[in-house]
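Field log, afternoon session.

UNIT: design team B
ACTIVITY: writing a sequence onto a fixed backbone
BACKBONE:
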């Protein structure tokens, strides 16, 4: 009887230990913060006409930062997406459908300093430095889908650039140079330019 009780106590203790370790690991997994490791200064581009879903991926910032989609509803009106302190990891927002190849410009508003930083080229920012990384490949599965990019912002004027201050992802997007014109359009413009040059030369010769 005593041996049985000891076995029961051991079983209960083991069960408690298992539950405790589960409780310790679960919040860590749920709060995992992802920081993009590549893609400094790249922009976010729509890669499909399917709805683009934004997911909040966490932060380790002391400043309170708001994330907006520039001209999200109509020109001049930015769409609020997340706040790094009040949004919960895993929160999502449907941004809607966009033309393939269109750049979605995101703005980080640092409420403590009043500064605003943008995805894309350094020239968009008040300190002329890159403040966002847009990583499109090498992201872990199942936390990220294919055609999903991870964006990480840095909120300090002149850095240091750790990109740990607001992380989020977007489905149905790809990364690219922010002033880059989508490929088919570039080719069309090049083709038109060449036709123009050819016709000029043709006219000059004759
Ligand atoms: Ca930082």
């Amino acid at each position: 009887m005593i041996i049985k009780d000891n076995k029961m106590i051991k079983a209960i203790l083991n069960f408690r230990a298992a539950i405790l370790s589960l409780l310790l690991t679960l919040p860590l997994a749920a709060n995992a913060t992802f920081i993009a490791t590549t893609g400094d200064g790249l922009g976010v581009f729509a890669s499909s006409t399917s709805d683009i879903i934004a997911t909040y991926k966490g932060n380790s910032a002391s400043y309170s930062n708001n994330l907006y989609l520039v001209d999200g509803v109509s020109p001049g009106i930015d769409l609020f997406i997340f706040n790094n302190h009040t949004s919960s990891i895993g929160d999502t927002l449907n941004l809607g459908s966009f033309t393939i190849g269109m750049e979605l410009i995101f703005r980080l508003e640092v409420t403590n300093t009043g500064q605003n930083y943008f995805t894309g080229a350094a020239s968009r920012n008040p300190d002329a430095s890159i403040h966002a990384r847009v990583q499109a490949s090498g992201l872990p599965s199942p936390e990220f889908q294919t055609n999903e990019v991870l964006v990480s912002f840095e909120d300090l004027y002149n850095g240091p650039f750790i990109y740990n201050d607001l992380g989020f992802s977007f489905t149905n997007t790809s990364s690219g140079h922010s002033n880059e014109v989508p490929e088919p359009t570039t080719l069309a413009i090049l083709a038109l330019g060449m036709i123009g040059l050819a016709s000029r030369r043709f006219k000059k010769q004759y």
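LOG NOTE: The chain has two domains: 1-30, 42-183.
NEXT ACTIVITY: expression trials, pending approval
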